[in-house]
């Protein structure tokens, strides 16, 4: 237990970095997910192909391979970002593919009549998407989106492998000094569980507030 | 064209067709622009030179990378077998009529579903050796992967078993089978068939997880790429080739999952 209390500030910094990374990438991935899901249902075949290719590529590549490629290999062609930014971009792009699929599943649940009614009153593709389809589609998949956010939280730990000192790395560093692995790693594990629990609670709350009972 | 695409727009008329053409051209121009920018970045840093790509046409380089792929597949296979077996046991535990068993299996699943795999890897790397558990490299990767993936498998199995019509269990019990027999003879065979696509999708996730061998320095595909690039200094080329190999393997698996799904959907419609 001493190992935890003596290094509270290190754990605190790690925890804050993990939370920051999670929040930033969740927002980024959500925006990307909406854009890609829209591309996949657009009337233009080329845009649909781009959306499909995006999902196919980023769902089938390991996140760690993407991180390594982005952080270690891209600098050789002159593309460099700060470490935290790189990690955030890669995780957002990766999770964006999963969110796009979840959102598309949500769009699929919206009744055909809704889209037809939107067109009948003269809304364009973009308008019917924004005002009719997405608000209903997103509400249908709050739970799956919450699960993806929890997966995203766990995936932020991979940023440790390319040098970001977030919670997992902070725990590892403290353990290297204190050599009390049980206390240190259990503490970190509990912190992750707590964060996941918070995401789960928020998802549940949103679900109760927003979900449409049919 | 499937249902989603049809609900959002009608059969295009002349004006809509013109707009689609314009959007196609714009999209193509943007795509070409991105491609040109990428090629320019590669060229201006000399990474496009033939000498920097030539090694990837030689057999020794490919033999090394394919060895890495073989190690990835071995780790993935071991993880898949062990974690699906453990996952099935956990799912049965969670659905058992025995309360402590239900509670234990539930706690395991809930804990390891929300702890990052990398943290578990650090535990096997840095904590367990202190307590005399120093596994060989292969198991240092596979054990943490099994611990976390078995929780995922347990949830898949459980949802499949719960999704099956309750009448199946009731009918089994009514003709005098015991609970275990109903599970083994009636419920599981049907549930597994329905679950096949989800199980294959989970295999893709698991195969991606083996890239954590990079952290353990077990020479699977990603770490092989790392080792190779530190010899040849062909960083971006090596990692692009490694990514391509992952993409080919995983995309084939994903495709297989979709085929299974399509077959299942056909099956339920004719029944």
Automatic annotation (TrEMBL), chain A:
Domain (ABC transmembrane type-1) ranges: 15-203
Main location: membrane
Membrane topology type: Multi-pass membrane protein
Localization annotation: Cell membrane
Positions of transmembrane segments: 21-43, 63-94, 140-162, 182-206
Superkingdom as given in the UniProt entry: Bacteria
A Gene Ontology molecular function term of the record: transmembrane transporter activity
The keyword Transport belongs to this UniProt entry's keyword annotation: yes
One GO location term (cellular component): ATP-binding cassette (ABC) transporter complex
Listed GO biological process terms: amino acid transport
One Pfam family in the UniProt entry: BPD_transp_1
Similarity comment: family membership: Belongs to the binding-protein-dependent transport system permease family. HisMQ subfamily.
Name of the protein described by the UniProt record: Amino acid ABC transporter permease
Automatic annotation (TrEMBL), chain B:
The entry's keywords: Cell membrane, Membrane, Transmembrane, Transmembrane helix, Transport
Lineage top rank: taxon: Bacteria
Gene3D superfamilies referenced in this protein's UniProt entry, alphabetically: MetI-like
Record GO biological process: amino acid transport
ABC transmembrane type-1 domain mapped to chain residues: 69-257
Any one Gene Ontology molecular-function term assigned to this protein's record: transmembrane transporter activity
GO cellular component labels: ATP-binding cassette (ABC) transporter complex
Membrane-crossing residue ranges in chain numbering: 20-43, 69-91, 103-125, 137-161, 182-207, 227-249
Locations listed in the record: Cell membrane
Pfam families: BPD_transp_1
Family: Belongs to the binding-protein-dependent transport system permease family.
UniProt-listed NCBIfam families: HEQRo_perm_3TM
Protein name (Swiss-Prot/TrEMBL): Amino acid ABC transporter permease
Lineage: Bacteria, Bacillati, Actinomycetota, Actinomycetes, Micromonosporales
């Amino acid at each position: 237990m001493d190992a935890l209390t003596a290094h509270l500030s290190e754990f605190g910094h790690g925890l804050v970095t993990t939370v920051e990374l999670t929040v930033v990438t969740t927002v980024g991935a959500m925006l990307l997910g909406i854009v890609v899901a829209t591309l996949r249902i657009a009337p233009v075949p080329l845009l649909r192909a781009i959306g499909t290719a995006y999902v196919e590529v980023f769902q089938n590549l390991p996140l760690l391979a993407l991180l390594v490629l982005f952080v270690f290999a891209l600098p050789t062609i002159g593309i460099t970002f700060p470490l935290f930014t790189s990690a955030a971009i890669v995780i957002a792009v990766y999770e964006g593919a999963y969110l796009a699929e979840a959102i598309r599943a949500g769009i699929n649940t919206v009744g055909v009549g809704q889209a037809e009614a939107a067109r009948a009153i003269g809304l364009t593709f973009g308008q019917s998407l924004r005002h009719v389809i997405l608000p209903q589609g997103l509400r249908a998949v709050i739970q799956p989106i919450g699960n993806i956010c929890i997966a995203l939280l766990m995936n932020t730990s991979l940023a440790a492998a390319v040098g970001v000192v977030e919670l997992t790395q902070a725990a590892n560093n403290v353990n290297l000094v204190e050599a009390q692995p049980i206390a240190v790693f259990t503490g970190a594990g509990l912190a992750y569980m707590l964060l996941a629990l918070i995401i789960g609670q928020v998802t549940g709350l949103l679900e109760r507030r927003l979900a449409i009972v049919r | 064209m499937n249902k989603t695409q049809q609900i959002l727009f009608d059969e295009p008329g002349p004006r809509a067709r013109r707009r689609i053409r314009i959007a196609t051209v714009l999209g193509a121009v943007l795509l070409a622009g991105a491609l040109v920018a990428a090629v320019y970045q590669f060229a201006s840093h000399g990474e496009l030179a033939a000498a920097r790509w030539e090694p990837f046409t030689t057999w020794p380089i490919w033999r090394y990378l394919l060895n890495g792929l073989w190690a990835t597949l071995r780790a993935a296979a071991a993880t898949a077998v062990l974690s699906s077996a453990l996952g099935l046991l956990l799912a049965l535990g969670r659905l058992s009529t025995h309360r402590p068993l239900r509670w234990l299996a539930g706690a395991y699943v809930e804990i390891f579903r929300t702890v990052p795999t990398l943290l578990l890897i650090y535990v096997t790397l840095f904590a367990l050796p202190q307590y005399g558990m120093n596994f060989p490299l292969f198991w240092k990767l596979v054990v943490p992967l099994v611990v976390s993936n078995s929780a995922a498998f347990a949830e898949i199995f459980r949802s499949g078993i719960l999704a099956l019509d309750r009448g199946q269990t009731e009918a089994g019990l009514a003709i005098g089978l015991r609970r275990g027999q109903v599970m083994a003879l009636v419920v599981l065979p049907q549930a597994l068939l329905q679950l096949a696509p989800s199980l294959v999708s989970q295999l893709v996730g698991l195969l991606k997880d083996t890239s954590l061998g990079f952290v353990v320095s077990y020479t699977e595909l990603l770490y092989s790429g790392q080792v190779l690039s530190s010899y040849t200094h062909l960083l971006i080329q090596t990692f692009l080739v490694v990514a391509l190999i992952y993409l080919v393997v995983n995309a084939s698996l994903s495709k297989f999952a979709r085929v299974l799904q399509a077959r299942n959907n056909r099956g339920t419609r004719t029944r």
